[in-house]
Amino acid sequence: MPETHRQQRHGSRSHGFNGIAQLSLVEHALSPLSYDTRNEGFVHRVSYPVYARGKRPVTANVTVSCPLGLAPSDELLLWGLLSLTLSDDKPASVFYATRHYVLSQLGLPVNGSYYAIFDAACRRMEFTTYENTAFYDPVRGELCDIRFGFFKRRKPTGADSERGDRFVWDQQFLEFAKHAYGRMRFPFSQYQRYSPGARRLFLLLRKFFHRRSVTPEFDVFDLAVNKLGLSPQTRIPDLKKAINRYAEELLEDGVLALPSG
């Protein structure tokens, strides 16, 4: 979904809406920030340390295969659909909703052009697969080597059909996202109004702030490339500038505060 999605619309139903993200997936970038709609058939690789209780950190190697590409703003759709699915008292692996309903609930414009944007983002997500050599399984409390997708979608094509779309979640992914130790809540309307890079930083810091009041020290390259999705070919000074731009969005919103003195 495109960058224009980040602007909050007046009267948005997403005001006060509780978003839900899968904890392990906010540890790293799912795709490069420099996305081009022609970038089909790419594979995004990234790594991050996993700190198992009482043990030395293990390196998790992640491979995200994107046959149709994957835009960084598609994560807005992923977390939005997941949040709507899990808002039910008894969430099921099958979620029914019209495009009108999803877009309006997420505070996005409801019109023909955004229907097309929504369809394209859904299709990219449908074909994406995620692999991780040290994924934390919150259900069983252990690290595992795993591969899963996100969801599949059945879209009625008849112009006169009144049926909603049928989204079928990957069983493993939904199991992890439903678990209390595998998910994180966040204010969706606040998340929505940031740029894609700032959104990733926002969720990453939300995870850290859940456990501490001060951010840890980040390696600039690791934060910029592995966690936010900036190009590894970018010079360190330019990576710092990009991180500062995303941090400024959060500073303006009161999410971050500079240390006194």
Summarize the structure.
The chain contains eight helices and nine strands. By secondary structure, it is α+β, with helices and mostly antiparallel strands. It has one domain.
Beta-strand content: 15-25%
Major sheet description = 4 strands, antiparallel
Helix content: 25-40%
Domain module tally: 1
Task: Give the end-to-end Cα distance, rounded to a whole number of Å.
Answer: 41 Å
- DSSP, total strands: 9
What does this structure look like?
The protein is α+β, with helices and mostly antiparallel strands and 261 residues long. The protein has one domain (3-252). Helices cover 34% and strands 22% of the residues. It contains eight helices and nine strands. The strands form three sheets. A four-stranded antiparallel sheet has the order 2-3-5-6. The protein has a three-stranded antiparallel sheet with strand order 4-8-7. It has a two-stranded antiparallel sheet with strand order 1-9. α7 (220-227) crosses α8 (236-252). It is globular and about 55 Å long. The model is unreliable at 2-14 (pLDDT under 50).
From the structure above, extract its key features.
single chain, 34% helix, 261 residues, three-stranded antiparallel sheet, alpha+beta, disordered N terminus, 22% strand, four-stranded antiparallel sheet
List the helices and strands and how they pair.
Layout: E1 18-22, E2 42-50, E3 58-66, H1 74-86, E4 94-97, H2 99-105, H3 112-127, E5 129-137, E6 142-148, E7 151-154, E8 165-169, H4 171-178, E9 183-187, H5 188-192, H6 196-209, H7 220-227, H8 236-252
